[in-house]
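Bench log, entry 3. Co-assembly request; chain sequences pasted below exactly as received.
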Amino acid sequence: MADDVASGPKNGILPALLVWSFLTGALASTWTIGYDASSMAGENGFPLIEIRNVTRLYRRGADEIHALADVSLSVQRGHFVAFMGPSGSGKSTLMNLVSGIDRPDGGEVSVAGQLLNHLTEDELAIWRSRHVGLVFQFFNLIPVLNARDNVGLPLLLTDLSRDERDRRAETALRIVGLQDRLDHYPRTLSGGEQQRVAIARALVTDPDLIVADEPTGDLDAKNAEATLDLLRLLKNLFGKTVVMVTHDPRALGYADDVFHLDKGILLEGESAARASEALRMALGGVVSTGAAT
Amino acid sequence: MKYLGLIRANLGRNKLRSALTGGAVALAVVLVCLLLTMPAGMDTMIERLASNTRISVHNKAGVVYPMPYSFTRKVRQVDGIADAVSWTWFGGAYEEEGQVTFPSFAVEVDRIGSVYPDYQIPPEQLADFLRYRDGAIVGRQTLRKYKWKLGQRVTLRSTVWPVKLDFRIVGEIPNERAPHFWLNREYLDQALKAQGRDGLGIAGVIWVRVDDPNRVNAIMRTIDTMSRNSEAETASETEASYFANFFGSLKAFVTIILLVTGLVSLCIVFIAANTASMAVRERAAELAVLKAIGFSRRVLFGTLLAEAMVLASSAGLLGVLIAIGVTKALQGAAGWNPSLGPLGSFIVTPAVIVQGVFLSLFVGMLAGVVPSFGAARKPVVQTLHEIF
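Structure output for the full assembly:
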């Protein structure tokens, strides 16, 4: 585990205090976030997400738009993957399918052993509450709730007591380095801090999968890197599978796998390599110093 | 209960809007509670005013039609009757107060004490009523209203008869709710004769006190049988029934008020529903996120509906408390302001409280159900597309 932490991005700015707070706080907690290094070692290498021949159509009037066309991929448990591509490429649609927000028109989507195709809206909601943590581009915290209550929101769907919900929310906030912002409301937090609260909210139910939709899209470079560092840390320390949809070329330096999409088609082979190279060029070589592509 | 914090936080999101919406609901509940007290209040008034051994005999065509005065003497001879007194409408207008009128009647002064023993008029005042031809016994409510004192002289102009008479106030009906002004029938009769008229040959209502409450119905039948086929057939009824009929016309008015109140409440439902819709629209992004993180349609619908119902029921409780406060204040004020006398009978009973609270819950439910359902039923992916 120490090696994993040490292998983090060299240009990462996540404070050492964050790791320290986790080691001294979260691990001391009777509630474990869910990462057991020994068991995760056994689970890594098995696909958490399996997508087979998935198509998704949108109808606008008489027109049919293929948001996704015959896409197949798999994501290993404990991996950090990025879905990349230009606007309209289908990456957000793919993210919606993976996170159980949407259902495909054809093909199969299986996540954490659950075939999602035929679940009803409410069944999908229950499934998401147990297996998926979501992070949005604009943080989307509830402005009338403080950081602790925002993070504790998904726990309202459990049978936990108020005290236990608070304790877990505080632990999640300690993990993201916001233990001194428990009672702060979103309006009193910076953009980077709000995104960390959102990540804590995604983490608090100990989901199998964390799905982040353009998590760096509304952040400055410094906070964007801190957010990517944090997502990577969740993968490294807790073995979380992280799926990120992004335009941000910096993602190449953090993701274990990058899936490039264009016009609803998953690029493979040389096409994918060219897309990655173009992104590296866009980043001016910074990615080459990254750690985990 | 675990969602209460979320509901409370959302209600506090726009405090002014919540306060205004709650205020509207509270006001509707106050109105409804006060109006719901009216039927029961009237019954209470009748109970307080009416005796179970006193019956009223009046023209079958209605109380405004007279009966021959001679019928009073016939009634007194019916077996089981303790005594009877006739009332003839005088319609006195008190000119010093701008021609105001109040219930004033010419009565047989020697019969009042025996027909109204429950009024507990002091014997010496009844004796003065007999002694002074121009004597008058006045209800406490009227005495207080015009600040009259015993021994004071007042002049009333009749709106029924062409006379204007001076009276000496010799007695008081010690009843907070009695507005009557009783004058000597002989006095009016002689005044009319002094003008060359026929005198007072009629009676408006004959009040009869019976010995045994169990014989009231039989005596009423006997009296009405006596007048059958005469020029003025009578209709007898108990005092309670008489007052109930008198207030019957008011009940139709109350029904209209209740209908208007119902419409006002409906308007408030629409206002509250509009407010709830606005609140839901403003929070579309948040609701989309809640759906995305796993809030099912049922949970989302429940929390949104609960928000509307918590606000409405809190406002309803406030409205009920205000209504109780208003009726208590009226009861207190009725003690020193006789004109408010009848209002002191209006009490917010537990049944009215329950109806008020249920009304507010109903308003909350109606106002919340449509926007809550609309927000909850949309698929999460559609909501996210609309928002992001």
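The two ends of chain B are 31 Å apart (CA to CA). Residues 104 and 181 of chain B are 4 Å apart (CA to CA).
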